[in-house]
Amino acid sequence: MAETDGLRDRIRGLLPAKPGAQREFATAIGLDETKLSKSLKGTRRFSPHELVRIAEHSGVTVNWLLNGSDDAVTVTAVPAPSASSTQDGPQPETRRRILETAWELIAERGYHHVRIADIAKACGQSAASIHYHFPTKKAVLTEALRRNVKLAFDRQVAELHTIDNAYERLLRLVELQLPTDGLLHDEWSVWLQVWNESALNPEMRGLYWDSYDRWFHTIAMTIRRGQEQGVFAERDPDAITTQLSALVDGLGIQVLTGKPGSSVEAMREHLKDFIDRTIAGKGL
């Protein structure tokens, strides 16, 4: 899929109208200014990673960057309103920094081991500033969950929108969920803590299920697309999605909790085997 003038226009619109703005923007998203300039001129494509970084830094979605709307029909399911950020439009820099810092601390230390004072110290803000943006510690966790949803949504749209073959798209979708070191491992850590809080606190369950449903429906729509293309066996998409999502969850938990013999590599092999045998029907 070719990049459009609309994508480049929307990215240009995110740059402040001031001298040196393009250089500052490039530095903020970790991109060489020359590469950014070429991409904005249309002589170089933005990579999926760059689109995700632009969206994260600017407080918009990759779907908005590519299609002009957060809710535009795309290759993945769109988050439910309750699972989307409560902040409309680009986030203020202070709020974004507080949320990113809190999210990282929760992933590394655990929700119950992170205090508001810890967040304030880590991001160089006062406790009053944290409370201004997030009145309670629970509000921090719920926004951390929404950040998980946005990160996954952005990553999937950026990576999958150029892959038409549903078999290749499903393999890539699964790859994007593996708890590899770094950001994805931290996302899994936050998810595990949300699962725990949801089991103990019924008030968390509505938001949790709205968040999880996006992942479920993304798998299901990919399977249906594969059946339309003739690359997947004709079986109940929802039943197969339940099996695949449960397998992803179970294997991911084994990796994160250090089960002997478990690894990201083994998880990848198990999931590909399931996709080939049960979804694509190979070898049957």
TrEMBL record:
<keyword id="KW-0804">Transcription</keyword>
<dbReference type="GO" id="GO:0000976">
    <property type="term" value="F:transcription cis-regulatory region binding"/>
</dbReference>
<dbReference type="InterPro" id="IPR009057">
    <property type="entry name" value="Homeodomain-like_sf"/>
</dbReference>
<dbReference type="Pfam" id="PF13977">
    <property type="entry name" value="TetR_C_6"/>
</dbReference>
<dbReference type="Pfam" id="PF00440">
    <property type="entry name" value="TetR_N"/>
</dbReference>
<keyword id="KW-0678">Repressor</keyword>
<dbReference type="InterPro" id="IPR039538">
    <property type="entry name" value="BetI_C"/>
</dbReference>
<feature type="domain" description="HTH tetR-type">
    <location>
        <begin position="92"/>
        <end position="152"/>
    </location>
</feature>
<keyword id="KW-0805">Transcription regulation</keyword>
<feature type="DNA-binding region" description="H-T-H motif">
    <location>
        <begin position="115"/>
        <end position="134"/>
    </location>
</feature>
<dbReference type="InterPro" id="IPR001387">
    <property type="entry name" value="Cro/C1-type_HTH"/>
</dbReference>
<dbReference type="InterPro" id="IPR036271">
    <property type="entry name" value="Tet_transcr_reg_TetR-rel_C_sf"/>
</dbReference>
<dbReference type="InterPro" id="IPR010982">
    <property type="entry name" value="Lambda_DNA-bd_dom_sf"/>
</dbReference>
<protein>
    <submittedName>
        <fullName>AcrR family transcriptional regulator</fullName>
    </submittedName>
</protein>
<feature type="domain" description="HTH cro/C1-type">
    <location>
        <begin position="22"/>
        <end position="65"/>
    </location>
</feature>
<dbReference type="GO" id="GO:0003700">
    <property type="term" value="F:DNA-binding transcription factor activity"/>
</dbReference>
<keyword id="KW-0238">DNA-binding</keyword>
<dbReference type="InterPro" id="IPR001647">
    <property type="entry name" value="HTH_TetR"/>
</dbReference>
<dbReference type="InterPro" id="IPR050109">
    <property type="entry name" value="HTH-type_TetR-like_transc_reg"/>
</dbReference>
